[in-house]
Amino acid sequence: MGFFDDMSKKLAEAGNTAVAKTKEFTETAKLNSAITAEEGKIKDFYTSLGKAFYEAGNENNDERFAKYFEAIASSEELIRRYREQIRAIKGTEVCPNCGAEIESGSAFCSSCGAKLPEKPIEPVKEQLTCPNCHEPVEEGSRFCTNCGQPLEPREAQETQETAE
Known about the structure:
By secondary structure, this protein is mainly alpha-helical. Helices cover about 55% and strands about 5% of the residues. A hairpin with a 6-residue loop joins strand 1 and strand 2.
């Protein structure tokens, strides 16, 4: 029976060691998680501090910060342009009253109901035509793509029309 008693003691010790190691691992994992959470808070505080400093402006014109102010302004401008391009692709614009994204050309905002300013109508660009076949031609073309007629430069055409 001594063999089974020794085996029982060894299994109990191994079980106790495993429980202790598991407890150690669990406590370490909890503490590492708490450290990570606190590091995240510090990062958020740094971000908030930097944003507050940026919004306050570089009043003392400290050269150490000038490059950051310029980089932020440059990135903000790029973001603004990208958003304009997205709105152009989607056919939307921003309501000047509430900032909602609305369909381009709307008379009223679908979000706040504000009357939107009317867009000025752009004048229709004068279409150049071939003097021979009267088909449209692109400005700067030297020949008509329809009939092959040599074309005079635009200034010469305008001068001739004025003289007639």
